[in-house]
């Protein structure tokens, strides 16, 4: 039987709650674009649903993430940040074909959540630098988010073998865990839902 390796795993709930200081937008839709970085430095881009720009825009939208990898991969993830962008799109007949305008960009570090007492943060994020679309002299837009880490555990998984065969019975590991690659396992699965 092949050797084994320990994998760490955790679940995270990321909730985009609402925005404030957006009164200067008279028409159009607002949405949040956010970027997650995986173990191999790939960026995953996700968008919230678009909502009408009102004086109190509220999404109350959650995404569930399942992260799994070796201890080194998890340590690397904890050094990363999630980037949030508040974006505006003018509503026209062809608005889906046009681009959106960046109102602000802010980052929240994973380590802020892992270092919190409850493995949870609820905070308003904003950027000191806003875009040219925000009139000068106004309070910068802000976004309220919540992040919760749950179910941190260590799993005992079969170690992947170093052979390049795609047939597990030809590689010599004999346990069916071989997929022909010697890479850290890192899974980022997302399920979007509105509360």
UniProtKB/TrEMBL annotation:
InterPro entries for the chain: C2_dom, C2_domain_sf
Signal peptide (UniProt feature, chain positions): none
Protein name: C2 domain-containing protein
Coiled coil: none
Domain C2 intervals: 1-125
